[in-house]
Amino acid sequence: MTQSTEYVKSKVSEEVVKKSRDRPPPTLKNASLVLSWELFTKHLLRCVVLKGDLKFIIPIGKSVGTAVSRARLEEVIDVENCNAVIEENPPAPNAQVDGGYDRILKKLSIIYDKYK
User: Which of 1, 2, 3, 58 is the most buried (most CB within 10 A)?
Assistant: First the structure.
C-alpha cells in the first residue's frame, strides 16, 4: 500500500514542494521488516509453496536479508516435496556497488533463467 503524496509550501522560496514520506526510524527498520514478514509475507509464500509453484527466493538488500534471515526463509519452504531454493542475497538496487549494478542484474537474470 502506497502512502499518499502530500505537498507543503516552502518557507524560504514559497514554492510548493513534495513533503518527504514518513519512514520508520532507523532503530525500527529491522523490527518493521520482521513484523511485515511474520504477519503477511511468510503466509503468502507458504500458500505458494503448498501449491508447488515456488521455485526460488531471493531476499533483495542487506537489511532485508538480515532481518528476515535464512532460518525464516527455510522455515517457510520446509514442506514435503518442495524443491524451492534460497538464493544469495544481492545488494539493494539503490546500494553503492563497485562497478555498477549491471553485473548484479546479469547475475539475477542468470538465476531467473535457471529456474524458469
Answer: 58
